[in-house]
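User: Hi! I have a protein structure encoded as tokens and I'd like to know what sequence might fold into it. I'm fairly new to this, so please keep things simple.
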């Protein structure tokens, strides 16, 4: 079902996964429902289609409840940052990768931090911001609390797999902190009437 230009599942789950076929969704007027291709070339991929077309169908029953989606915050984000719930996010997905320490240093240089992730919905939101998919993304999870930006001068201290990256599919992996990756920063939304430096 299509509502205000975005797709949603009829059981109210967020859209975590898509498998659109080439050129889909075409967004032609009145094509607000989704079917799966059965052709040899596009088998299993999705197509937006008219809801009144007769097609085979599949039903599902599950007792699993959809994950909660946070209410929108009422604050402001830094320029070019994207709001989600009460926080704002920036994903670096350029061609050049950065070590975990350099990524954290960048986030801290604008008074933010590498993102911590607290729900599947938040994870999928962050995945959606990794547009180029050049790299996995460093997140704020680490095994070594001494892994500060200045430890980059002591490679032996961070050569073990103490830092956590997020794969393109959302799974996590501990890896060598010196590996070059993209990264995601997060900051809490600021009240519009507050001076910037008071927001953190």
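Assistant: Happy to help. Inverse folding works backwards from shape to sequence: for each of the 200 positions I chose a residue that suits the local structure. Here it is:
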């Amino acid at each position: 079902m299509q509502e205000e230009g975005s797709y949603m599942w009829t059981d109210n789950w967020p859209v975590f996964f898509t498998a659109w076929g080439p050129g889909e969704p075409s967004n032609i007027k009145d094509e607000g429902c989704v079917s799966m291709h059965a052709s040899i070339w596009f088998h299993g991929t999705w197509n937006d289609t008219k809801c009144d077309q007769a097609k085979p169908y599949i039903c599902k029953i599950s007792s699993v409840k959809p994950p909660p989606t946070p209410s929108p915050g009422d604050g402001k984000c830094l320029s070019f940052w994207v709001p989600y719930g009460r926080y704002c996010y920036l994903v670096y997905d350029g061609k050049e990768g950065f070590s975990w320490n350099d990524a954290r240093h960048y986030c801290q240089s604008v008074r933010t931090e590498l993102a911590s992730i607290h729900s599947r919905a938040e994870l999928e939101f962050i995945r959606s911001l990794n547009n180029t998919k050049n790299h996995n993304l460093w997140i704020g999870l680490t095994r070594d609390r001494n892994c500060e930006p200045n430890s980059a001068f002591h490679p032996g201290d961070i050569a073990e797999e103490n830092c956590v990256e997020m794969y393109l599919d959302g799974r996590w992996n501990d890896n060598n902190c010196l590996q070059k990756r993209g990264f995601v920063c997060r900051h809490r939304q600021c009240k519009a009437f507050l001076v910037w430096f008071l927001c953190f």
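A useful reference point when you look it over: The helical segments are 100-109, 120-129. Feel free to ask if any position seems puzzling.
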